[in-house]
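BUG-287 | component: ligand-complex export | severity: low

The export step for benzoic acid jobs runs without errors, but we want the raw record kept on the ticket for reference. Input record follows.
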Amino acid sequence: MRNLTEENVTEAVINTFANTENPRVKEILTSLVKHLHAFVREVELTEEEWMYGIQFLTRAGHMCDDKRQEFILLSDTLGITTLKDIINNRKPPGVTEYTILGPFYVSGAEEMPAMANIAGDTPGEPVVISGRVTNPSGQPIANALLDVWQASAEGFYDVQLPDQAELNLRGKFRTDAEGRYAFRTIKPSFYPIPGDGPVGQMLRAVGRHPYRPAHIHFILSADGYEAVTTELFVEGDPYLDSDAVFGVRGSLVVDFVQHDSAEKAARYGVTNPFYTVEYDFVLQPLS
Ligand code: BEZ
Ligand code: FE
């Protein structure tokens, strides 16, 4: 292996993987080298560009700690996370679609009774969210768990603000015997993904905005069913068709129906005016 050329250097590197014990490691490394070499050839990467890329990745690494993961944000904003999610969550039509988990999930939210308010006294427009969890034939799934979290009306998760109550705007709910769930919250807002690192720099360099359309996150699970991580998006949000992390699925966009009735509001235990959202989730039985 001497005097390698533009033409044979890729093959020479791939040959060095010949004795890899794990066949999947071999497949992944071989493909990675093929595609990275093809990229370098296609753009004819210069010395300065190569060094810029190395420094970009180094800065991304320096941004990472136990709360911030700049590499995942990079994967999210380049659509890699969503492509991986689509490949790994192929489901028959009608089953609730998976979408991006994001960095703001915290386990350990409190289990609450139906109609509890996950927003506490956080300012915002009240919303009552309800519906059913069923199997693909429409039969109710009792005792399914909905783990819910969202940003405030100002677009911040509790973990982003040191003065916000821990586990604010988070809660767990169980479905009843008819598969029904219901809870109260506030209408979320669109918000920017963190833009103070190399990912923000990349978005600005290509003229992209950093916003995610308003959404509420869910992880649904039930015995005998595949769990699904998903989100409900607010119909009419200005960023539905330009989500910074490519997570919007049409089946997850819901109407927030506005009501102006003091009597109905009192019945729901919310202030007037308020919104209602109805959404039925469908889980796939374990195979
Ligand atoms: C989120 O929806 O919480 C999120 C997803 C990906 C990147 C940043 C935030
Ligand atoms: Fe989010």
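Assignee comment: Attached the raw record above. The pocket of fe (iii) ion (ligand 2) is lined by residues 102, 104, 151, 212, 215, 217 (CB under 6 Å).
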